[in-house]
Each structure stands twice: as structure tokens, then as C-alpha cells.
Specification:
The complex is a heterodimer of chains A (about 325) and B (about 220).
Chain A lengths: L1 E10 L2 E11 L4 E5 L6 H8 L7 E6 L2 E2 L5 H6 L1 E5 L10 H5 L1 H5 L4 H14 L4 H4 L9 H13 L5 E5 L7 H18 L2 E6 L2 H7 L2 E6 L2 E6 L1 H6 L4 H7 L4 H8 L2 H4 L1 E7 L8 E2 L4 H11 L3 E5 L5 E6 H7 L2
Parallel strand pairs in A: 3-8, 3-9, 6-7, 7-8, 12-13
Antiparallel strand pairs in A: 1-2, 1-4, 4-5, 9-10, 11-14, 13-14
Chain B lengths: L4 H15 L5 H7 L13 H16 L7 H12 L3 H25 L3 H9 L4 H34 L9 H10 L2 H33 L1 H5 L1
Helix pairs in contact in B: 1-9, 3-5, 3-7, 4-5, 5-7, 6-7, 7-9, 8-9
Classes of the chains: A alpha/beta (about 325), B mainly alpha (about 220).
């Protein structure tokens, strides 16, 4: 758990972070979102003491971070940054092994861990372990960056616009990947982005920041349904809200279940039960159909969702 | 192996000439028909070469803010004639390129790399030794290369104030109007500079191979 209590950061006369209070529960993904210069990166960098805070208290698992050794503190916090920050003179495997080596793990354990992480991040260890960062694509390099941050199994993960420099498709893939990994490892994550869609997709709770203050700290759904101010309303896109809410909603919630599961009819478009309601609506609109069949992870048709139901309860 | 060939060949030529300058007597006699002794005999070239190198060595760790002759003029009253003032001049002269390149090398690092190194829990010493120096090493090495090469030439000026270097035959030749002497000294100094320079070139290339595999991998 990370707690920020009345934290302020000044750069000379300017106040970058203005008396914020924020509690990040263990295992949740807190996304700090706002335009550039709103203090979100500053907040993140105060948590691992890359920047000292001017006033207030920051507690990690109940302990004041100023009383801890900064290196020890950081070794227990994975850190992923926009430019990847991979070390160009080290191979992929050596980059991932950085923190375990600093912690002086035995070699076999490091090798096993590197192998495990590369597999988790969908990087073929055989093909990539001995490459250098310059030989990787942007998406691969950022996967290595994430693997490096997870290497010593830290309790906390800090991510500073990690996918900001990637193209849309790669970014989307990595976001899905991150959701999958997060389901497996459950790290307390602080994620900084300026992209509200990314925030809505990844967050368990979002903190909207502007001019060094936190305007609203709530679940994605509440942020969309009940924005606390005009700024938040504009940020989430006033008129786009309906569709954004639909993308938070899973098909499972709005479908009508069959009594027994059955094989889907071949050649008909289907949605999976954990797809978003927005996707179901898109298929219904595109095909001009009244309903679309829903399948489970095994490919069995377990129900259907109607156009009417989507219209009523999607958002 | 190929990259080490030029420094090896040049080193062989340098040593060979230092020992066997006599064999070139007909050539120098043709150059300087009016002189009896066309090969410099006061000291052996090998001795002068041996004396030249340690002087350069002092320098490899180090400035170039003053013209060397000005430094010599200032240092001689304080330190007397001999090797001490030239060492001072070489240190001052060799320092600047190394310092400048070290700073440039460290400043030229991708800030994200340093940020990541610190943010992942490296201590400042670990960041310097494991990340900054290896990455800036190539540029620092280039500074040492410039410095040493310049200093080989500068060390020869030391002969004007009584240091025994390969500059001796050059000075002696200039004083006596014996072009052959000047040439012998100059050839050896030139070769020494070329040898050292190509050695550094080779070191730099092997460094590149290890550190930027993308350049050579394909």
C-alpha cells in the first residue's frame, strides 16, 4: 500500500504538486492521468525518491520512505519509463537480470527467472536473450523494460508513460498484455499517462490531476458517470461517454444465457463473454442484426445479446 | 585480427628503423652530400625512443591550454633544465582533450538510461562504473588518443631544454644545418605517432564491436 499525505513538491517558486492526498491499495492499478505539466510524473518520481518531496509524508506499507535507504526502496519497486531506458551495452538477458544481480541472486536462479519472464512477456528466450536493445523493435524493447521491472518480483510497479512512444497497434497489444500479467502477478501499480482511454482500460482507480492537484480519484465507471468538475468531464470526453462506458461493461453482464451451451453456428460472428459491450454493439450495427451470439473461452455458445438490451443497459 | 595489423606493422617499422637506421646511410648521404656523418650517432635511436615513451606516458593520464613552448619558458626558471619542465608541459597539454571528452561522453548519454539505472536501485557508484563509464568509454578513449598523439610531438620539443628524446637529432640537425639528422628524428617521431594512433584506432574498433553489435552484427 502506498499513501501520500499532504504531499507538496516545489521547484523554486513553482508548485508542481500541491498538497495531494492519495492512497493506493495493495494490488490495485492506480492511473494518474492529466495533461503534461500537471504533476503526475513528479508524483510518481517522489514515490521512489528520484525526487524528494518538499512537504508531507509518503508511506509505503506504513513506513515513511524518507527513513529508508533510497537504493533499498527502489530495488523493491519495478520502474518502467517511456524511452525504455534499456542499457545499450548489455544483452536483453543481462538487462532483465539487472536487479537480481544487484541483489546478488545465484546465477542459476537469475537464469531461470530471466527465462520465466521472457516467456511471460511473450518474448522467445532462444531468439532474443542474446540480442542487444538496438536490435529490437519498439514494442519488444518495452516488453524487455517491463520484464526488467518485474525481475526481482517487487511489490510495487511504477510506470511512467511506458507505452507513450509506441504506435497504436503495439500500444494496444501491450495494454492487453499488461492486463493479463496484472491478473497473474497482482502488483500494486502506479501508472502515469496522458491518454484517458489507456487510463480507463487499465485502471482499477483513476486519479485525474490538473495543476498539481488531484481533481477526482475514483473508479473508471464513476469518473465517467459522475465527473466531479468540468475539467474531468472534458477530459473523459463529454459526448463520447456513452461508448466509453460500454467499453468498460462486459458482455457477460448484458447477455441472455442459454439453458445449455451449444456449438455456435459456423460462419456467424460471435463475441466472447469477457469482450466489451461496445464490441457487441459494433457487430450488431455492422451486420444490421438483432442479436449476436456469445461464446465462452472454450468456444461454446452460452447465450446471446440483443440490440435492445445493449441500448438499454450498455451504458 | 585484421584491425590489429596496422599498429603491428607500424610498430615493427618503428623498431626496425630505430635499430637499423645505418642501413639507410646511402639514402641520407644522397640527401646531404656535403656532410661526413649523415647518421645521428650521439645517442642510439633505441635509447632515445625508450626515453621518449615514458615522457609521453606521464601524459596519457592528463592538457593543452597553453602552447607547449610557453609552458616550457615558464617552467624552466622554476624547475631548471631537463625532463621536469617538459613533463609539466605535457601534463598540461594532455589534460584538456581527455577532460573534455570525458565530460562530452558522460553528457552524451541517453538521460533515460541514467534515469532507469537510478530508478531501479543502483547506487551512484554502480551507475558510474556499470553504466556511464562503459557507455562513455569510447569517447573518453578518443580523448586519450588525441592527447597521446599530440604529446608524442610535444615531447620532442623537450630536447630544446635538455630532455633526451627523439627531438635530439632534430635539434642537433637544425643547429648544424644537417638535414639528414632532422629527417631521421622526424621520421621516427612521425612513426611513433602513427603507431600509437593506429593502436588506439584498433582498440576503439574492438570496443565498438563489443558495445555496438548492431553496427557489425549484420
Amino acid at each position: 500500500m502506498i499513501e501520500l499525505k499532504n504531499v507538496t513538491r516545489r521547484f523554486g517558486e513553482t508548485v508542481a504538486v500541491d498538497n495531494i492526498n492519495l492512497t493506493i491499495e495493495t494490488g490495485e492499478v492506480c492511473v494518474l492521468v492529466g495533461s503534461s505539466g500537471c504533476g503526475k510524473s513528479t508524483t510518481l518520481r517522489m514515490i521512489n525518491r528520484l525526487l524528494p518531496h518538499s512537504e508531507g509524508e509518503i508511506l509505503v506499507d506504513g513506513e515513511d520512505i524518507t527513513t529508508m535507504n533510497p537504493e533499498q526502496l527502489r530495488l523493491n519497486m519495478g520502474y518502467v519509463i517511456q524511452g525504455t531506458g534499456l542499457f545499450p551495452h548489455w544483452t536483453v538477458a543481462r538487462n532483465i537480470a539487472m536487479v537480481p544481480r544487484l541483489l546478488k541472486w545465484p546465477k542459476e536462479r537469475i537464469d531461470a527467472r530471466v527465462h520465466e519472464l521472457m516467456t511471460l512477456l511473450d518474448l522467445d528466450p532462444q531468439a532474443h536473450a542474446h540480442k542487444y536493445p538496438q536490435q529490437l523493435s519498439g514494442g519488444q524493447a518495452q516488453r524487455v523494460g517491463v520484464a526488467r521491472a518485474l525481475a526481482a518480483d517487487p511489490n510495487i510497479l511504477l510506470m511512467d508513460e511506458p507505452f507513450g512512444a509506441l504506435d497504436a497497434i503495439t500500444r494496444e497489444n501491450l495494454q492487453l498484455e499488461m492486463l493479463r500479467i496484472q491478473r497473474q502477478v497482482r502488483k500494486t501499480t502506479v501508472f502515469v499517462t496522458h491518454d484517458i482511454d489507456e487510463a480507463l482500460k487499465l485502471a482499477t482507480r483513476i486519479a485525474v490531476m490538473d495543476q498539481g492537484r488531484i481533481l477526482q480519484h475514483d473508479t473508471p465507471e464513476n469518473i465517467l458517470r459522475d465527473p466531479s468538475s468540468e475539467f474531468v468531464e472534458n477530459l473523459v470526453g463529454k459526448q463520447d461517454r456513452g461508448l466509453k462506458l460500454m467499453s468498460l461493461q462486459s458482455v457477460r453482464k448484458v447477455m441472455t444465457a442459454h439453458r445449455d451451451s451449444r456449438h455456435p453456428e459456423p460462419g456467424v460472428d460471435t463475441v466472447r463473454e469477457d469482450d466489451s459491450a461496445r464490441l457487441a454493439l459494433s457487430i450488431v450495427l455492422w451486420q444490421g442484426a438483432e442479436q449476436v451470439p456469445v461464446v465462452n473461452a472454450d468456444g461454446q455458445e452460452i447465450g446471446f445479446v440483443t440490440r435492445e438490451r445493449l441500448m438499454q443497459g450498455g451504458a | 585480427m585484421r584491425i590489429w595489423l596496422p599498429p603491428l606493422l607500424l610498430a615493427l617499422l618503428l623498431c626496425g628503423l630505430s635499430v637499423g637506421m645505418d642501413t639507410l646511410q646511402p639514402l641520407f648521404q644522397w640527401l646531404q652530400p656535403d656532410k661526413q656523418g649523415v647518421i645521428y650517432k650521439r645517442e642510439s635511436f633505441l635509447f632515445l625512443l625508450q626515453n621518449h615513451l615514458p615522457l609521453v606516458n606521464q601524459v596519457a593520464s592528463i592538457g593543452q591550454t597553453f602552447p607547449p613552448v610557453a609552458v616550457l619558458a615558464l617552467a624552466v626558471p622554476a624547475l631548471g633544465f631537463g625532463e621536469a619542465p617538459i613533463v609539466v608541459a605535457l601534463i598540461l597539454y594532455g589534460l584538456l582533450p581527455i577532460l573534455r571528452n570525458t565530460l562530452a561522453g558522460l553528457e552524451g548519454l541517453d538521460p533515460a538510461v541514467r534515469e532507469a539505472a537510478r530508478g531501479m536501485g543502483m547506487s551512484p557508484m554502480q551507475v558510474l562504473l556499470q553504466v556511464e563509464l562503459p557507455l562513455a568509454g569510447r569517447v573518453i578513449l578518443a580523448g586519450i588518443r588525441t592527447s597521446v598523439t599530440i604529446n608524442i610531438a610535444t615531447a620532442a620539443i623537450g630536447s630544446t631544454i635538455g630532455a633526451r628524446t627523439l627531438g635530439d637529432p632534430v635539434i642537433a640537425g637544425l643547429v648544424n644545418g644537417n638535414t639528414a639528422y632532422v629527417l631521421q628524428g622526424a621520421i621516427l617521431i612521425g612513426l611513433l605517432a602513427l603507431t600509437t594512433d593506429s593502436l588506439f584506432e584498433a582498440i576503439q574498433r574492438s570496443w565498438d564491436r563489443r558495445l555496438s553489435p548492431s553496427v557489425t552484427a549484420s
